[in-house]
Amino acid sequence: MVPPTALRAVFDNSQVGMGLGIQYGEDSVRDYFAQGSCEEKIAELMDHLGWIEDLNDVFGDLPDGSQRIVEQRQKISVGDIRHPKRQKS
User: Fold this and answer.
1) pTM for this one?
2) What are the distances in angstroms from CA 9 to CA 1, 3, 28, 55, 83?
3) Has residue 85 got a pLDDT over 90?
């Protein structure tokens, strides 16, 4: 069973789960709402945690859309990085 104090994060374009007890707003003590594209928000979270570079080992296995998101996050974090597997001649 999940303890009632466990932190929860919702990644979605709109607020969902209110019927399940998810609470949104400044008064929420355990729920966090990351509005937007799930892939973009997860990449943003990974960037904030310092994990975005860890994706380099699996970069070639990611779908094209995910590769673009990772590249964009890396540019924001480190400057103008060009991943070797994505360079165009």
Assistant:
1) 0.69
2) 17, 15, 11, 22, 30
3) no
